[in-house]
């Protein structure tokens, strides 16, 4: 019997309960881009009927986690990925389903080189949140680190 490695989406859903709680859909998860979708769900609406800011934050943070897993999953035996700090800006009213697209702000090889040198590298992940009509409703930046295992 052969065992297969779980997909990034399966790993994310298995290790981050909020992904399951919000019913986030993993559209794409590669080292180049991670795209997650928050379906329109009344239980997670705000006072104007759109997705709650906390749900959008979780969507964007989860997209950043997906790209970190895709880019650095092969480093998990020696380093733990951790979010260090984040900033979010809400640009337009979000209504209906929203999508978060995450991109790394540094080359993977540079981050791994710092880890190889015994450092604790930090790197930004930039996320754009959009409505179905393509309008950008929010932007988020999260700084991540790879903390070496002790």
From TrEMBL:
Q: Quote the CDD domains the UniProt record gives.
A: PaaI_thioesterase
Under InterPro entries, the record lists:
DUF4442, HotDog_dom_sf
- Record Pfam families: DUF4442
> Which SUPFAM superfamilies does this entry report, sorted A to Z?
Thioesterase/thiol ester dehydrase-isomerase (SSF54637)
Q: What is this protein called?
A: DUF4442 domain-containing protein
């Amino acid at each position: 019997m052969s065992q297969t490695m779980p997909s990034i989406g399966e790993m994310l859903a298995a290790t981050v309960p909020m992904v399951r709680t919000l019913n986030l859909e993993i559209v794409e998860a590669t080292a180049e881009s991670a795209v997650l979708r928050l379906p329109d769900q009344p239980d997670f609406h705000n006072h104007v009927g759109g997705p709650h800011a906390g749900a959008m934050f979780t969507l964007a943070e989860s997209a950043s986690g997906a790209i970190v897993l895709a880019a650095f999953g092969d480093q998990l035996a020696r380093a733990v990925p951790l979010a260090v700090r984040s900033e979010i800006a809400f640009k337009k009213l979000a209504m209906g389903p929203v999508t978060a697209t995450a991109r790394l702000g540094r080359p993977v090889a540079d981050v791994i080189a710092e880890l190889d040198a015994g450092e604790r590298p930090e790197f930004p992940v930039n996320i754009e949140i959009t409505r179905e009509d393509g309008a950008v409703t929010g932007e988020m930046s999260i700084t991540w680190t790879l903390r070496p295992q002790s």
